[in-house]
Request: fold
Amino acid sequence: MLSNTFPLWPTRASTISGQVDALFIFLLMLCGLMCMAIFVAIVVFAIRYRKRPGHQATQIEGSNAVEFTWTFIPAGIFLFIFVWGAYIYFLERTPPRDSMDVYTVAKQWMWKFQHTEGQREINELHIPIGRDVRMIMTSQDVIHSFYVPAFRIKQDVLPGRYTIAWFRASKAGTYHLFCAEYCGTNHSGMIGDVVVMEPAQFQSWLNGGGPMGSLTQTGEGLFQSLGCSTCHRLDTQGRGPNLIGVFGKPVLLEDGRTITADENYVRESILSPAAKVVSGFKPIMPTFQGIVSEEQLNALVAYIKSLTARPSGAAQNPTFQSPAASKADTTRQR
Amino acid sequence: MSAHIATKKLYITVWASLIFLTALTAAASYLELGPFNIVLALVIATCKMLLVALFFMGIKYISDKMTIVVIVAGLFWLFILLALSMTDYASRGWV
Amino acid sequence: MSDSTPAVVEHNPDLRHHFATMEQQTETAVMGMWVFLITEIMFFGGMFAGYVIYRHLYYSAWLEGSQRMDFWWGTINTVVLLCSSLTMALAVRATQLGHRKSTVTLLIITILFGLAFLGIKGIEYWGHIVTEHQLPGPGFRFAGPNTSQVEIFFSFYFAMTGFHALHMIIGVGLVSFIAYYAWKGRYGAHYYTPVENTGLYWHFVDIVWIYLYPLFYLISHIHRK
Amino acid sequence: MASTPVAAPERENYLNNEYGISSWLFTTDHKRIALLYLVTITFFFFIGGFFALLIRLELLTPEGDLVLADTYNKLFTMHGQVMIFFFLIPAVPAVLGNFLIPIMIGAKDLAFPRINLLSWYLLVIGGCFMTYTILSGGVDTGWTFYTPLSTHFLDTHVIAAALAIFIAGFSSILTGLNFIVTIHRMRAPGMTWSRLPLFVWANYATAIIQVLGTPVLAISLMLVALERVFHLGIFDPRLGGDPLLFQHLFWFYSHPAVYIMILPGMGVISEIVTCFSHKRIFGYQFMALALIAIAVLGFLVWAHHMFVAGISLYAALVFSLLSYFVAVPSAIKVFNWTATMFKGSITYSTPMLYAFGFIGLFTMGGMTGLFVAALGIDVHVTDTYFVVAHFHYIMVGGMVMAYMGGLHFWWPKLSGRMYPENWGRLAALIIFIGFNLTFFPQFVLGWLGMPRRYWQYSPEFQVLNVLSTAGATILAVGYLLPMVYFLWSMRYGKPASDNPWGAAGLEWMISSPPTTFNFDQTPTVTWEAYNYDELQEAPVER
Reply:
């Protein structure tokens, strides 16, 4: 009945896990010390000052000095803990530039992963050791949560937008993958394995995956078949903005706001295009809500991201500014 | 509490200024002020609110300071809800 | 929802047993009413927070949505409510002065203004729901871009003005309850707390509309084609 | 065991001055309403406790073999909803607060007695809706009602449960309103703010939160109900909504709600520790200020429940910093309680044992709060059993311990009878042991990464889960004991004197049980709070 292994400490398998454990151990000691101090004080006072004949309680009003010490000292310690915790969180929320993207679609009670090289996996995630992996995740129905205890990372997966989690595996092996946000009947069944392999092993696993073509190629195919290329021409300036070099750069909008073109902006522009129209263009793009599936959306986003990398031989230096850079009144419709 | 009873004339003038402010904010909406449109509208609405609250609801004549603290606390809590939840939405794209 | 309307008659006709003086009882009742109004501020505050956030997220949808609002009905409604606030304030003043007849007439005028407001609101709702199918849900029709976001605008429009109308109906009920008792001579210079609290409630509902009016009707009135 | 005492001379008090159902169901006497609340929340406490036992039994084995997955989801949802909205939130304010606040400030009754009765009826009506939800199939959205799961992906009784909590919320709002106005306007002459017992301060701070926070929960549950009925998309992204907006509105109330639950407990503990150390509270102004600070700062920290939910990086930093500021007043209070015992004259009667338990366990609960407020660690431990253990340490280890201590401390005043002392001590010990065995293993489970709300879990977590279930059974026995001997004491308990503990406070200067109007004539207060130097020690019993 009782399982044989009885671990008391989760395995450390990612670069960030060491720092999280360090903060945890520090807090464990600090709080353990404080709890012991309070317990010992209570027991000692309870015994030493117990009610017995001839013993009188001495009334103490209180002392401001003592009060201030145990107000500002804890406040100072708490600030230190806050800064340390915030530093780790900052590392976890800022993925490095050149990380390997894995597109994830969470569905009620299963995980679907897709590597940019084309491999598709369900409830299994093969990743190489020592490589920054960026999970670009969205959900098809309710809120789930991508949680790998061994990597000490967790990120809720929201329907209707992308959320990002990144890690770099530091130890080969197979680790648990849990869904941590309650998502219905089989929430406890929505689990899987993260298999961390040596780079060589990973490469052979990748090649053995069959000729289904990389995500960016599927994305390019979709870009043509859905008719995106008719307006978003890649060589000259069409009715839609030229998308080369757009990803990751700031974009000036029609109503004067400037936002960075991240995965969420690309997704929102595909599903509800008139929400944030690029300045100098008219909201003529039809919505693709319900036409494009989550997987196809991932492929399109991967393709648009890849447009920046490709050396654009023919076109001149691709600036996103529309030719009518100056605010010609004719095109702006009030 | 407000044993003090305001004159009928005062009520009429307060009412008149309320009507005037309504006309003002309605007219102002015809102007083209961009982002300041909503700011002006809210300023005028706050003036109208103060008029109704101070005179019609008699906050001006409340003798017990505690009730005024309760009123101001209520508005401050509404501000907490609006401001702190906006820290999330306003800073979404900054990372 | 008026609070402890005193009914038990003891040595002083309207003094409840657990209060020391009449003055303490009145101040307690008014403070209780203000604390209740604070809970109403936070109740509407939740929806205002949702409004502010969605306005930040979907500004273009908010522009299109508010173009469908009927500017003139909104302005007339605001004027109607301000007049009802005036007559309510005068009614409270009349009660304090003990003028029973003018109190009752002023209260009845306030009720009429309230019903006028609800009538205009009914006309607007009829226009939005029946003729233009803008009631959010499966039956929602909207030509033009980002339909689902405009539907969110209308969800908030109907939620906020709907709850306001509900509070207006409660208000009209309260004022008629007070008018009936005032007509029977229950209130006067010696005892006017229920009238005063009903007045506070009425003015609060008016203030909520003072903010709803610009937020829904005046956003992009200028973009009207 | 105490021999059956001779029947106490029948003096006229609030219990025997009128009989019959209508004397209870239409009473406006704050003491009788307190007893009505006591019966209601005890009923719901045992329903919630029964659900908790079923959950623990299911988790004995890694596989889901006791109940179906859906049933398990309903169990933890309704355990949460019943315990929080129908036991923890009303417990101390409605039972002990209703009974004691008017007496402690020298008033005949609350400011609005009829609204007080209305509050009880609202809780009962809400309770009926909740019972209907339980009997007719239950709800499995989690007590947090997260959207879009609760609005578009479940067809269980979500609207009935939301309505139940909506109505019970108004009971909480009206109680808060009653307390604020009473404490402001109904204090006896001489009862200045600095002479108020800390129990009154604690309920005043709680009332502030109840009044300012609960309406936002009311509107968010109303929006969920509207979304289900009219198929709106306010919180559903497929129809343009944003699920995080619901979480912001929900947690804006639900974090201050945990302070609604713990603050009255702190008030009770301040009363018990001073009485049984026979000593003035250490740093009265700081203790009162800390209560108000917790109530106010409690409203600024809610998004620390959403660090991984998808809020922006900078919002997470802001809320984590504010969460550390709210931890400071709690630390002050723990230090002050411990300092109050220094150089006191401490007796080990049952309320004091509960106070020891409270201070120890609340300290552990508060310390683990520092863990989950640290952003780096929260990413790993949120939504795991670490968080479950954290809030149970504060709710069960803190709040229920304080409630039990308060019930024992004021039982002579409530019923006019003494509870059996040794049985009380035994029950306190059993509860302490059972509690720690139940929830300490869950800290380790959470750190290992076992997610919460799991019907089946990985085999390596089994040993700790078995320990936790064993603890749960001991805890259940521990809670049954007081139920038995309190009822027993109503009939056979030793009649209580006016001041059996030698405690300070106006409630110990009137007869137990008190008369309907508490005081023959309104007292004038001339002494400071906790004036134990003027009070002689309580007679050493037995």
Observations:
- Chain D has one domain: 27-508.
